[in-house]
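User: I'll paste a sequence; please echo it back and then give the predicted structure.

Assistant: Echoing your sequence first, then the prediction.
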Amino acid sequence: MHYKNGREAKEGDSVVGKNWCGTAVCGTLSDLNKSTDSCNGQLNRALGPQLYVTVGELYHVEDALAAVEALQPLADTAPQPPLPAATPAKS
């Protein structure tokens, strides 16, 4: 059983992704069921009830963070909007 990017899934992994209706979810993976292709794990969330999830639609949180960090140099080189001109202080 593997995540969307091919990394092997294990119980206790911290994961992020989208559920069946496209809502972003995050939590800890548990109760993996290798005998099915969908709804094959439970996501334990800090807030809210457990959700059944399809592991192949999730990412390990470390992989998601690495992907975001890889985009950082692009953000640093993007044109920045000009700062507003300073107004002289009134005396």
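Residues 61-77 form the longest helix (17 residues). The longest strand covers residues 24-30.
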